[in-house]
């Protein structure tokens, strides 16, 4: 079940958590600050800003999913953050590999590879997080999730061309606390997660999170192809938080994860050409990071961030085995300050993203990108604020790139108006969605590709008065030199593909609408998203709609919730028709509704929950097989996923909370 998240507004720079640690007490309990939604009575505390401004005074709109919302999603899908992110308007979690269940996050119609995924402001999942990476992050220890849409390269480099998502960790409180969750589903899934945190000494606290997740393979339509892959995953993440009396602070994190995932044909079954085709991926990841702050006087602070990540994969695509390693190294130092109505930040960064394949070394790369960046926010009047940011990256392969962003905030109460626009770039890699699903064996070595670029803009108008909230966003993106695969030779006979820059421009226009009414323990929320995305037709016949981009999506959610009693929620989601590409069964997906119910009962420290997903049993394989009659030129045996693959699912379990402050 998906519930629409509460929205908060904070600065574009807020996705680095340096000030988050400085603004909290030595024991880690947040000091009272003004909430993002104080006009509506919805108290969401901002945990991270570089400028130090109140959240409602910042020029760039960022949507925040707070801890309360995260706890709701824990009961729906405890194993990963995909469902949490799918609640935010303008985000779409798209399945990229039905064989392995991989998915990525599309922001306002842009491909998932353009979305930067950070953890506490660090690229702990890589400069370009893999499609399975999203499904390997449990939400157990998250304090909030922050989303910024549109080109964010001005402060965060080429990986943030389409937007950025920052996962902010929970902090230890004044007293020890622990939480355990056990969950099981009717589709053969089980989850067990645990979180514990405690103060260690004055100014020093620690937390530890661990999880075990498994899923048995499911061939729901009985055709011999696994519709839900099996997996088994272990993860652990310790963290240390320190803050000195002078305002200095430091945060250390480390993580380890191992997963084995299996899909494709069932043992003894074959694809239409009569051959067995197992698909598998084994993943081992290690990461570590540091965030630190040191005051350099009354109004200036030094900030340091750094991280390292290594991820090793063993892929199986039929009779082909691919072994590779991804690594990311990141370092940044910056100074920030404030004087009167002016806030500023400036610094330098370095990032190295590399890929090494033992099987296909022709695709190896190592991108090194030093850069400098800066941001200035100026409060012109009490109601008008202007912010400008820019970054200069010196990419060793794609040259020097300039990425600016300009934002404006005007607040004639009870209205909030924001205008923002920016430019950015993306360094192409072999890992477009089809290659992540099919492997490198049929891809030609990359030729001379151009960097992908985008110009994005948005107009956001919000209203809040009493129990009513409303928000309308208009957005647009113009993209140049985007990449896609094309078959070599006639498509019906081709068994090789190459990656090219698309001629012409990819244009995206759209809008988001959110309406919410609150009364006591009841909340009703409605949302609607419109996306019109078009690109050059690969056959040379003008333009076409971008595949897998529904023009209309909508949702209606009703929730009753009392903290010490429980909650009950109903959701109805609609997904409209979406154009499909290279699908032998249809040219567009069918529109469909998804209905879900969630219930939770609180009994002392025990919480019992039950969640019903997709009550109508909508499933793509009710209409046609996932399997193609012939293997695609890029090597895939499945068509694209345009509807749910699991059908109706029921899950339930318990949560136990010990200690802490309630």
List the helices and strands and how they pair.
Layout: H1 18-22, E1 63-65, H2 67-74, H3 82-86, E2 91-97, E3 102-107, E4 115-119, E5 142-149, H4 153-156, E6 163-169, E7 177-185, E8 189-201, E9 204-215, E10 230-243, E11 249-264, E12 278-295, E13 300-317, E14 320-339, E15 342-357, E16 365-379, E17 384-395, E18 399-410, E19 415-426, H5 433-438, E20 452-465, E21 468-480, E22 483-487, E23 497-501, E24 505-519, E25 522-536, E26 543-545, E27 552-562, E28 566-575, E29 592-603, E30 606-613, E31 649-659
Parallel strand pairs: 4-6
Antiparallel strand pairs: 1-5, 2-3, 5-6, 7-8, 7-31, 8-9, 9-10, 10-11, 11-12, 12-13, 13-14, 14-15, 15-16, 16-17, 17-18, 18-19, 19-20, 20-21, 21-24, 22-23, 24-25, 25-26, 25-27, 27-28, 28-29, 29-30, 30-31
Notes on the structure:
The protein is mainly beta and 662 residues long. It has a single domain, classed as Beta Barrel (Maltoporin, Chain A), CATH 2.40.170. It contains five helices and 31 strands. The chain has helices at residues 18-22, 67-74, 82-86, 153-156, 433-438, and strands spanning 63-65, 91-97, 102-107, 115-119, 142-149, 163-169, 177-185, 189-201, 204-215, 230-243, 249-264, 278-295, 300-317, 320-339, 342-357, 365-379, 384-395, 399-410, 415-426, 452-465, 468-480, 483-487, 497-501, 505-519, 522-536, 543-545, 552-562, 566-575, 592-603, 606-613, 649-659. It has a 22-stranded antiparallel barrel. It has a four-stranded mixed β-sheet with strand order 1-5-6-4. It has a two-stranded antiparallel sheet with strand order 2-3. The two termini are 26 Å apart. 50% of the residues are buried. Residues 1-49 have low confidence and may be disordered.
């Amino acid at each position: 079940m998906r519930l629409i998240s509460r929205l908060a507004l904070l600065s574009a720079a807020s996705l680095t958590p340096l000030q988050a640690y400085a603004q909290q007490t030595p024991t880690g309990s947040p000091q009272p600050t003004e909430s993002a939604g104080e006009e509506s009575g919805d108290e969401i505390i901002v945990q991270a800003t570089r400028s130090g401004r109140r959240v409602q005074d910042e020029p760039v709109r960022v949507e925040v999913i707070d801890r309360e919302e995260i706890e709701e999603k824990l009961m729906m899908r405890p194993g990963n953050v995909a469902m949490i992110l799918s609640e935010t308007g303008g985000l779409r979690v798209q399945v990229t590999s039905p064989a392995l269940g991989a998915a990525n996050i599309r922001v306002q119609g842009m491909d998932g590879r353009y979305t930067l995924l950070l953890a506490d402001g660090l690229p702990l999942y890589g400069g370009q997080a893999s499609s399975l990476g999203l499904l390997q992050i449990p939400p157990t220890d998250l304090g909030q999730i922050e989303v910024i849409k549109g080109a964010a390269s001005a402060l965060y480099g080429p990986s943030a061309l389409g937007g950025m998502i920052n996962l902010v960790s929970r902090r230890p409180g004044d007293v020890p606390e622990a939480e355990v969750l056990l969950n099981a589903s009717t589709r053969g899934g089980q989850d067990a997660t645990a979180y514990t945190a405690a103060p260690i000494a004055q100014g020093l606290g620690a937390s530890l999170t661990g999880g075990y997740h498994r899923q048995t393979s499911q061939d729901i339509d009985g055709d011999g192809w696994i519709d839900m892959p099996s997996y088994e995953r272990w993860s652990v993440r310790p963290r240390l938080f320190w803050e000195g009396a002078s305002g200095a602070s430091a945060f250390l994190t480390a993580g380890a994860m191992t997963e084995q995932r299996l899909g494709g044909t069932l043992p003894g079954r074959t694809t239409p050409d009569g051959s067995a085709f197992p698909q598998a991926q084994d993943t081992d990841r290690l990461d570590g990071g540091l965030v630190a702050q040191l005051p350099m006087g009354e109004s200036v602070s030094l900030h340091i961030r750094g991280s390292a990540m290594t991820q090793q994969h063993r892929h199986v695509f039929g009779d082909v085995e691919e072994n590779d390693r991804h690594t990311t190294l990141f370092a940044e130092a910056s100074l920030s300050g404030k004087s009167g109505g002016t806030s500023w930040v400036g610094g330098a960064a370095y990032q190295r993203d590399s890929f090494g394949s033992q099987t296909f070394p022709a695709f190896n790369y190592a991108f090194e990108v030093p850069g400098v960046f800066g941001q200035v926010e100026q409060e012109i009047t009490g109601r008008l604020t202007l912010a400008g940011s820019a970054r200069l990256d010196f990419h060793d392969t794609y040259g020097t790139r300039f990425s600016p962003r300009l934002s404006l905030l005007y607040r004639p109460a009870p209205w909030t108006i924001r205008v923002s626009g920016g430019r950015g770039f993306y360094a192409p890699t072999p890992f477009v969605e089809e290659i992540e699903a099919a492997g490198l064996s049929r891809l030609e070595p990359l030729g001379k590709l151009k960097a992908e670029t985008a110009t994005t803009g948005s107009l956001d108008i919000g209203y809040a008065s009493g129990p009513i909230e409303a928000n309308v966003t208009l957005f647009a993106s113009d993209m140049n030199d985007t990449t896609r695969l094309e078959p070599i030779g006639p498509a019906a006979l081709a068994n090789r593909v190459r990656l090219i820059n698309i001629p012409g421009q990819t244009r995206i226009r759209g809008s988001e609408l959110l309406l919410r009414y609150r009364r006591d323990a009841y909340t009703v929320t409605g949302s609607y998203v419109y996306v019109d995305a078009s690109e050059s037709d690969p056959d040379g016949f003008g333009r076409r709609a971008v595949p897998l981009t529904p023009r209309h999506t909508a949702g209606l959610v009703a929730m009753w919730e009392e903290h010490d009693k429980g909650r009950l929620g109903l959701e109805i989601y609609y997904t409209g028709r979406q154009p499909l590409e290279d699908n032998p069964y249809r040219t567009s997906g069918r529109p469909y509704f998804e209905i879900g119910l969630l219930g939770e009962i609180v009994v002392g420290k025990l919480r019992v929950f039950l969640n019903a997903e997709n009550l109508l049993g909508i499933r793509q394989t009710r209409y046609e097989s996932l399997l193609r009659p012939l293997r695609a030129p890029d090597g895939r045996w499945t068509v694209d996923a345009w509807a749910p693959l699991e059908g109706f699912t029921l899950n339930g379990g318990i949560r136990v909370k010990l200690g802490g402050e309630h």
